[in-house]
Amino acid sequence: MRSNPPARAALPALLFPALILLAGCTSTDAASPAPSASTPPPSTPSLSPSAPSPGEALPSDAATLEQWAATALPENGLGGSTAVARGTGEVGSAGASVDLQPVGGSWDVVVACESATGAPLTVQIGGVDGTSADVACGLPGQPGAAPTTLRWDAATSATLRVDSKTQAVFVYEVHPRAGT
After folding, report:
1. How far is CA 64 from CA 69, 72, 88, in A?
2. pTM for the whole structure
């Protein structure tokens, strides 16, 4: 007959309290729900709604516009993708334009805005034959709308055209398109 070494005999006595302790450390479904089908994969950055402007009115000077832009679309907020261009502006019924220089390749132009009435902006890249989208805007002092991403194939120079039916402010960034 073989005898158990003292360490082996003590193992069950130590293992049971350790299992009890670890059982208290496990998470529940409420603490860590299973990912849903609508959750983007971790490698895909998601843009959350922008922060509201600090007051009940649109930013009215360069300093408050930059402050709003920093919260509405944090610099390089796409994570891992450095912006090659960034700008802000005010737009009304006359619209606004920004010249984009040709840099080759595919790019994402990310736009966030806030308008006096919450009306969207119409954004075009490259004129009527280019890319166009309506960009949802937040209201002053309210939670902002999520930024909108437009694709730009930058073989030639293009104009970023922003139109609005009401007074609005916007911020944009140009990022390399993922996978290019």
Report:
1. 8, 12, 11
2. 0.67
